[in-house]
Amino acid sequence: MKLKTRRRVYLREAALMLALAKLAVRFVPTARLIAWASRTPRVAARFAMWEAGWIASAVETVGAKPWMRALCLPQALAAQAMLRRRGIASRLCVGVAREGETLAAHAWIELDHDIIVGGSDAPRFTRLVAFGENR
Fold first, then answer.
1. How many helices and strands (H and E) does the chain possess?
2. From the CB of residue 110, how many other CB atoms can be counted at a distance below 10 Å?
3. Can you tell me the distance from the alpha carbon of 26 to that of 122, in angstroms, rounded to the nearest whole number?
4. Are β-strands 126-132 and 114-117 bridged in parallel, bridged antiparallel, or unpaired?
5. Neighbour-count burial of 134, counting CB atoms closer than 10 A to its CB (0-12 exposed, 13-18 middle, 19+ buried)
6. Cβ neighbours of residue 63 closer than 8 Å, sequence gap 6 or more
7. Contact present, 16 and 22 (Cβ < 8 Å)
8. Which of 21, 71, 96, 124 could form a disulfide with 77 if both were Cys (CB 3.0 to 4.6 A apart)?
9. Domains of the chain by residue range
10. Does an H or E element contain 94, and which?
11. pLDDT in tens, 52-65
């Protein structure tokens, strides 16, 4: 598969997963989202780690588009779903930080202790919970 074609495939899948994740955040009960995010992949893929970079790039590119405007939690859910589909175990993390008088929250994806989605803001947040696992 050509590089340009592969990029298009990842971008289309990211757009679909982001749309589904936005709907899930809005309409699915939190307990079901947590249970879903905590699941591990059925089959572990040992040689699919190179796909994580493509997935992260596609999710962040589509999530930043004006017609999508996906916040960090839908982006993290979409990336985790795309990774799980390929048998790559990841961890969805949620953290908080104090911004003056208010409390801000952020979600990101870790893969072997490296932040692949939502990493630009993650260092200033204190991790509260993590869902899923890294193998």
1. 4, 4
2. 21
3. 23
4. unpaired
5. middle
6. 14, 18, 69, 70, 74, 75, 78
7. no
8. 21
9. 3-132
10. strand 91-99
11. 999 999 999 999 99
Between the alpha carbon of residue 115 and those of residues 21, 23, 63, 101, 121, the distances in Å are: 19, 24, 17, 28, 10
Tally of residues, the chain: 135
On the CB side of 35, CA atoms within 13 Å amount to 5
pTM for the complete prediction?
Answer: 0.90
Partner residues linked to 3 by β-bridges: none
Place of tokens 């929250």: 105
Record the tokens describing residue 57, joined without a space: 């790039």
pLDDT tens digits, residue range 87-134? 888 999 999 999 889 999 999 999 888 889 988 888 889 999 998 876
Distance from C-alpha of 109 to C-alpha of 111, rounded to nearest angstrom:
7
